[in-house]
Design a protein that fits this description.
Layout: E1 4-13, E2 16-26, E3 31-35, H1 42-48, E4 57-66, E5 69-70, H2 76-86, E6 87-90, H3 94-97, H4 104-112, H5 118-124, H6 130-134, H7 142-154, E7 160-164, H8 172-189, E8 192-197, H9 200-206, E9 209-214, E10 217-223, H10 224-229, H11 234-242, H12 244-248, H13 281-285, E11 291-293, E12 296-298, H14 303-309, H15 319-322
Parallel strand pairs: 3-8, 3-9, 6-7, 7-8
Antiparallel strand pairs: 1-2, 1-4, 4-5, 9-10, 10-12, 11-12
The structure holds adenosine-5'-triphosphate and nickel (II) ion.
């Protein structure tokens, strides 16, 4: 059974439809990268896991189940318990996620309870200087503040950590260090990770699986290396082609032409159709249902056909032929 199950989730912010029937599964102990262009719905999906959406958001349809609990139908005490014991969150801006009026040590103590060892948890994120314990959040660098936020999120060894671009605001050297820290703490605790990111090469390197979002839906998911190395959805192919790592390996740097949609209601067909080089008439007015291509789940009417000839149009060489 999945630790996290998101099924046909539809979230509206007044007139904007942020999620348009998103499906996502995260298994126990698994690390899943959630990628997609800005506005594709990553943060909305990540926040929905803990029902941490802004007040403007409304769940129009679908459900989120964490460890068997239907998140949107829980009474307040059960929801609090779920957030406190089973879930951890880290966000892009660590200073904003900490309480500006409380010293770091006091905040961590609040999470840990009476018996908790503040020093131990700070040492785990390599903040062993006692001055850090006494500091207020604004006295810390961005990297240090993010490590405090990580220590707090991981202090209860949650089953699932949702990380919404926690390294995006840090400089590149600190970024690597902080990412390493999150993945190794989670591996030690058996914590699953849902890692929201724009950084495809980093996701390919670190995550077991990847889910690609477009227009408020997960349009492709599966083993990270396979999805990004041999995409089955034309959007994934375009995105992977546009990533610098692909360029470094000799592929053409191909940004996706056109703009992503801003939906105001259900997309009548495939939201990617207007930008898709493979779109046929059906794609405009019929919503794609998930199909399985190899180990990948794909929302594309032509996925099976394209799998035969390759999304880029070149013939696919079958492994048994090359072996
Ligand atoms: N609080 C809000 N009020 C109104 N609209 C919102 C709100 N939050 C998000 N949206 C809209 O919902 C859609 C999905 O946004 P979301 O932040 O989930 O995307 P994202 O993939 O996380 O983007 P980014 O990569 O820029 O963080 C966008 O059209 C966005 O403008
Ligand atoms: Ni976001």
């Amino acid at each position: 059974m999945s630790l996290l199950s998101v099924r046909n989730l539809v979230i509206d912010y007044a007139k904007t439809r942020a999620l348009d029937g998103a499906d996502l599964e995260v298994a126990q102990g698994e690390t899943v990268g959630l990628v997609g262009e800005s506005g594709s719905g990553k943060s909305t999906l990540g926040s929905a896991v803990g029902r941490l959406l802004s007040r403007a958001a409304q769940r129009t349809d679908g459900e989120v189940v964490v460890a068997g609990e239907p998140v949107f139908d829980l009474p307040p005490d059960r929801l609090r318990h779920l957030r406190k014991r089973h879930l951890g969150f880290v966000f892009q801006d660590p200073i904003a996620s900490l309480d500006p009026t409380m010293r770091v040590g006091a905040q961590l103590r609040l999470v840990l309870g009476r018996g908790g060892d503040v020093g131990f948890h700070l040492a785990r994120v390599r903040l062993d200087d006692p001055r850090v314990t006494r500091a207020y959040p604004h006295q810390l660098s961005g990297g240090m503040a993010q490590r405090v936020a990580i220590a707090m999120a991981m202090a209860t060894s949650p089953e699932l950590l949702v990380a919404d671009e926690p390294t995006a605001a840090l400089d590149s050297q600190v970024r690597e260090e902080v990412s390493n820290m999150v993945f190794s703490l989670a591996a030690d605790a058996g914590t699953s990770i849902l890692w929201l990111s724009h950084d495809l090469p980093a996701v390919a390197r670190r995550c077991d699986r990847v889910a690609v979002m477009y227009g408020g839906r997960v349009v492709e998911s599966g083993p990270a290396r396979e999805v990004l190395g041999r995409p089955a959805h034309p959007y994934t192919a375009a995105l992977a082609g546009a990533s610098p790592a692909a360029a470094a390996h000799g592929a053409r740097l191909e940004p996706v032409p056109g703009r992503p949609p801003v939906l105001t209601g259900p997309a009548p067909g495939c939201a990617f159709a207007p930008r898709c080089p493979f779109a046929v008439e059906r794609c405009e007015h019929e919503r794609p249902e998930p199909v399985k291509v190899r180990d990948q789940h794909v929302l594309c009417h032509r996925a099976e056909e394209l799998a035969e000839r390759g999304v880029h149009g070149e013939p696919v060489v079958h492994p048994e032929v090359t072996a």
